Amino acid sequence: MIARLLLRVVSWSVMAYLILPLLVIVGSSFTATSYLAFPPQGLTLDWYGRMLADTSYLAAFGTSTLLALVATAAALLLGVPAALAIARCEFPGKRFLLSLLMSPLVLPHVVLGAALLQYCAALGLMRSFTALLVGHIVIVMPFVLRSVLPQLTPEQRALEEASADLGARPMETFFLVTLPQIRSGLASGAIFAFISSWINVELSIFNTTAEMTTIPVKLFNYVQYTIDPVIAAVSSITIGVAALAIVILDLTVGLHLLSDRR
Amino acid sequence: MNRALPLLAAPVAFFVAFFAVPMIVVVSSSLMAGGVPSLGNYARVLLDQYHWDVLAATFRIAGLTTAACALLGYPLAYYLVRVVKSRALRRTCVILLVLPLFTSNIVRSFGWMVLLGRNGLVNDALVGAGILDRPMRFLGTELGIVIGLVYILLPFIVLAVGNALAAVDPALEDASSDLGATPFDTFRTVTFPLCLPGLMSGIVMVFTLAVSAYVTPALLSGGKITVFPMLIFQQYSTVFDVNYGGALSMTLLVMTLVLVGLAGWIGNAGADAKGRAAR
């Protein structure tokens, strides 16, 4: 009984610990004071107004969004064929190839960012959108592979073969049979890919400039010098985007985490 | 059967061009000094006591973070999967767990900069409750960095352990208690061993992410504490010494991989021992 009570207390304290910082940021973005105050004193949307008036924030939001969208699209275009080949073919070095493609998940992003800075400088692409983009594609592709590969099962394969036997061309089979079958894997892979790109600092920071920067990197550079409620407002927007992504994820594929799917 | 093989051409070409080759460039630069092949950069890294101090601080912070994540995350995972009966409540909790994961490290660390400040909510609460006489310094201490990192990495452990727990058939636990085991014995001999692989993979993930974290330590250290990724960042962003920076990068990479390998090996050895004991 005491163990139960203790478990309950620890669990709810940990949940509170997980929610508190986000609550503080969103709350203090509405404060009427010129410094960050939590609980907020007064209630104003001024800081959001200031953020919208500063075009550099809008530009950074734009860069981040474009980067995350293009990186996700490219990761799908590269990752889905790779997953199909890995699921369907036997070839020497397959395990090695798969670990190579998945390794950006565990590799320190600082190391990869530094490597791409040096490499892209040699190619004449230093601190360009292209340099940012290739790095983001590398780090988000594992999410596509991880969510699509488990769906390419023998049962899924059987339907494809039936489609081919009935006279469908390979492209017809792919678009009419395979894609609908792996739809939920594509959706969750794409959402994880988008978000990982959208929130990245450690890789982006090497290839951004004062003019071309992403929103997390801009926040990072700003927070080291000043903390004011504008930062809280910008942060709150990113928290809103995260919440939106989770709602979409829940509605399209369902958040099945921590529940028994049998 | 192998008709699908050509599909690999584009993804593999891309990974070679923008992942493998850049990493090889870093390795080869790290082995060059003054235009000639040399191990001098590594000597510079490994023979300097300062680097060992920074590495020790980095791994100490990562170790404490991992331990705290496991100790806090395991009970929460168990509670959410085994105790919470309401599906709606569990779903809400899962959403609240994933929300921080979908938010940038910078935003989350920024929240702690506000909370842990001299006049922040944490100090106010501790002083108000009479636990402290005067505000304590968190920012610029290893404790502050650990608090921030635990916060960032905790969801990984909860999800890893929770998913492993959800896959354990409750019938096994029922059988154990029907055969007369106390709840604690059932947990110790049935539930815990069965979700040990989930816990181990969560621990490895948290540890590698903690060792390579740059943003959180940079914001919460207040310039007073240096962790290894900061040294790498300095070399590439301000000094632009790719040879020495490359050696630092490789040192971090190798040290991390060795420790991850070691953890996997200990985990496997533990699982084998358990398997033998069961037989």
How does CATH name the architecture of chain A?
A: Orthogonal Bundle
Radius of gyration of chain B: 23 Å
Overall shape of chain B:
globular
Q: What would the CATH topology of chain B be? A: MetI-like fold
Order of helices and strands of chain B: HEEHHHHHHHHHHHH
What is the CATH homology-level superfamily of chain B?
MetI-like
Shape of chain A: globular
- State the helical fraction of chain B: over 70%
pLDDT averaged residue by residue of chain A: 87
**Which residues of chain B sit in consecutive blocks of at least 5 with pLDDT less than 50?**
none
- The Rg value of chain A, from CA coordinates, equals 22 Å
- Widest sheet: strand ordering of chain B: 1-2
- Main structural class of chain A: mainly alpha
The string of secondary-structure elements of chain A, in order, is HHHHHHHHHHH
Number of helices in the DSSP assignment of chain A = 11
What kind of oligomer do you see?
A: heterodimer
Task: Explain the overall architecture.
The complex is a heterodimer of chains A (262) and B (279). Chain A has 262 residues and is mostly helical. Helix content of chain A is 71%, strand content 0%. Chain A has eleven helices and no strands. The relative contact order of chain B is 0.13. Chain B has one domain (49-278): MetI-like fold. Chain B has 279 residues and is mostly helical. Chain B has helices spanning 9-30, 40-46, 49-83, 87-101, 105-115, 121-128, 142-166, 170-178, 183-194, 196-211, 215-220, 228-239, 242-278; strands spanning 32-33, 36-37. Chain B has a two-stranded antiparallel ribbon. Classes of the chains: A mainly alpha (262), B mainly alpha (279). At the A-B interface, α1, α3, α4, α5 and α6 of A face α1, α3, α4, α5 and α7 of B.
